[in-house]
Design a protein that fits this description.
Strand content: 5-15%
CATH architecture of the largest domain: 3-Layer(aba) Sandwich
CATH superfamily of the largest domain: Glutaredoxin
Order of helices and strands: HHHHEHHEEEH
Radius of gyration: 18 Å
Largest sheet: 4 strands, mixed
Number of domains: 2
Structural class: alpha+beta
Helix content: 40-55%
Number of helices: 7
Number of strands: 4
Shape: elongated
């Protein structure tokens, strides 16, 4: 099934689709594709008779929507109070320099994506980083770089 067919199928799940269903439609598309592509925005716009600019305006207002696919390893950095006090900003800077991406972006090779979250609810582990649902406690820049090195090595060994 092509990307367009997947998008069309997701939209078809809504009976008597109307403009007031934009957010649920966007949620469904993201659930289906993992993100909201420009192509999806165009298709939604035609179906709902809404300009793409309006759709982007709504989607960018809510931080639940992504416009790029997630990396194989999705890294979430907690910026809650406990994590902030214990140095999560420095960890984030280390990551952005190492991966050469900003929060909300994915590396060119599709291996890593980065997201800053308000709180992961693991304050006793601060500063905490979550990678694909696994929590890493008492994180530091050097420990995170070592973890990235392990993940890269794991991917290289799979490629052989």
């Amino acid at each position: 099934m092509t990307s367009n067919e997947k998008i069309e199928k997701a939209i078809a799940e809504f009976e008597n689709i109307s403009r007031d269903q934009l957010i649920p439609v966007l949620q469904k598309i993201q659930e289906t594709q993992g993100y909201i592509s420009k192509n999806a925005v165009q298709i939604i716009g035609k179906k709902l008779n809404i300009p793409a600019s309006k759709i982007f305006g709504v989607a960018t207002f809510y931080n639940q929507f992504r416009f790029q696919p997630l990396g194989k390893y999705h890294i979430q950095i907690c910026r809650g109070t406990a994590c902030h006090v214990k140095g999560s900003f420095g960890i984030m800077e280390t990551l952005t320099q190492e991966l050469k991406i900003k929060p909300g972006q994915t590396t060119r090779d599709g291996l890593f994506s980065l997201e800053v979250v308000a709180c992961l609810g693991a304050c006793s582990l601060a500063p905490v980083v979550n990678i694909n649902g696994e929590f890493y406690a008492n994180m530091s820049g050097p420990r995170l770089l070592a973890l990235l090195k392990k993940l890269r090595a794991k991917e290289k060994s799979k490629g052989k």
